[in-house]
Amino acid sequence: MTRKNYDVIVIGGGLLGCFAARNLARYDLRVALLEKREDLCMGMSRANTAIVYSGCDTKPGTLKTAMCVDASQGFEGLCAELGVRYSKCGSIMICFGERGAGVLRKKLEQGTRNGVRGARMLTREEVLELEPNVSADVYAGLYVPDTGTVMPWELCLAAAENAARNGVDINLNAKADNISRSSGGYIVEVRAEHAAAGASASGQDTAAGVSASGQDTAADASASGQDIPVKAAGVTVYNTKAVVNCAGLNADVVLEKVFEPVVRIVPDAGDYYVLDTKAQGFIRHVIFHEPEEKGKGLTLVPTVEGNILVGPTERKLVMDAAENIPADDAGFETTLEGLESLRSLVAEVVPGLPMEHVIRSFGAVRPNPFEVDYISQKSAHGDEAAQLTNVERSIPEGGTPEGGISDNALQNCAASKEKRAVTISNRSVNDFSIIESEDEAFISFIGVKTPGLTCANELGRYAADRIAEKLDALPNVKYDSHRLAQVRVNEMPFNEREALVRRDPAYGRIVCRCRGVTEGEVLDAIRAAPGAVTLDGVKHRAGTGLGRCQGGFCTQHVLELLVSELY
Q: Which of 366, 393, 408 is the last residue of a domain?
């Protein structure tokens, strides 16, 4: 059987996976990323609040805090490096009474201890001067200048493109069905139903053997002495020295293919509204609402594209009955109850917000990591205890965010020969849950949530540095951290548009009227490496379908371009 040999396999193509791959490319390593979906950024990373947090909300002295503060203060530079739009709009947390004001003062004190720059309390009058459309009943505010907002898709895909340009092979429709140890590290298997449809970073079918650079992998392998991956007995086999597990909601499942359980993910979900660009300017900062009564407040975000994001709510996530894990799209639906609660909060916090400009709603999923406890194999009745795949994933009674997993448990995850039954404890993990074995090159990110987007690059660098240390890897002297920003015709001066259209008339043919997206931009999205193969893929790269008609005008044209380019 012919096998493909890599130094590192990254499992998962969300923000963490793409930034892990990009940072691994800084080293002289052969790296591949496996993503089970048809495109990158199709899990939790595709739907969130899009906020770059400053570090006021995280506990002093934790890895999460250190990474968050460093990341927020360097985020503008990261986005410039990757050609990604970023708005450092700042944030104001507002309250409507003395209880809330006390919370704000504690956050200011905590942020100051964490190293957050420029944070200060605001009086009622100062809040209304900065944000005249919030309720006149506002009591006080906390201003933080380093808060920002970014498009999650744009950031994730930019990191992936940069990784691919630096030699990382990106494989789509490639679910890691099984992982086992080998004498040289690990064997990762992708079954035929995934591998046959697998796409590489160039957007071509892997059966045709196209690499991230767009060159034939047979020629590449011949030149480098590497083997070519083939399907044998219905399985594509990848040999690797190291694994970085960034599998999102399934990261605990992936970990347990090789190790005993340490942390289990208990997901929940939330609802959001998106307002049309007609509402642009109604708020100028990210607005956080600290409610007087116990419960979840409201967040409003002025996005980089001029929309206003409203949400999220908090609700339980229905699990897949067969596997007891979230289905691929579970949680991304919305609920009437959740959307109605958002409207109620809007009426309280920003009563004049023009909700008639709502153009869509969406759901998002958040992972909540909890420690596990081992239980005896026999119950009180003598029956076999529930096995790993059947443990109920719901927040335990008395679950609290104040819990935390010990460093010893995190860093010394023992190998499992006979899997033991476990139950989820009520001890939630407050810091980033990074699980690694001291003796093996296998790192897992389990249940990374807010501020995961903010810290994606820092977490990716952490994983890359740890793996490089274990493999004695040298720096990649050819590594280029920069990526050219994609063409956005609607944001260009008219003289530059005219020159561009003279060079390529496709940039003069409008496909999306709402956003002013051209045929040339859609073709760029499809031809990128990795490129779009679906309507969502084009939407995430070029912005079609995001305007007030939600694809009513452009969908047919985009489909025709996809067919002409891919088939």
A: 366
Does 354 sit behind a cis peptide bond, omega within 30 degrees of 0 on the bond before it?
A: no
User: Does 312 score more than 70 pLDDT?
Assistant: yes
CA–CA separation, 302 and 150 (whole Å): 10
3-state SS assignment for residue 355: helix
CA atoms within 13 A on the CB side of 222: 6
DSSP string, 360-412: EEEEEEE--EEEEEE--SB-TTSPBPP-GGGS--SPPTT-BTT----HHHHHB
Local confidence band at 412 (pLDDT 50, 70, 90 cut-offs): very low
Residues with Cβ within 8 Å of residue 540, at least 6 apart in sequence = 39, 41, 46, 153, 154, 157, 532
As for how many domains the chain has, the answer is 2
Per the DSSP assignment, residues forming a β-bridge with 239 are 5, 187
Domain range for 521:
489-566
What would you report as the CA-atom Rg of the chain, rounded to the nearest whole angstrom?
A: 24
Instruction: For 51-70, write each residue's pLDDT tens digit.
Output: 999 999 999 999 999 999 99
DSSP-assigned states of every residue in 377-388? SB-TTSPBPP-G
Domain-ending residue, one of 366, 392, 417? 366
Is 121 domain-assigned? yes
| Residues 263/322, Cβ–Cβ less than 8 Å | no
CB atoms within 10 A of CB 31: 28
In degrees, rounded to 5, the angle at the alpha carbon of residue 321 between the alpha carbons of residues 315 and 322 is 145
Measured distance CA(172)–CA(215) in Å, rounded = 17
521 touches 489 (CB < 8 A): yes
**361 and 498 assigned to the same domain:** no
| 347: amino acid identity, one letter | A
DSSP code for 87: E
- In tens, the pLDDT along 370-409 reads 999 987 544 333 433 323 332 334 434 444 333 334 344 4
The predicted pLDDT at position 327 comes to 56
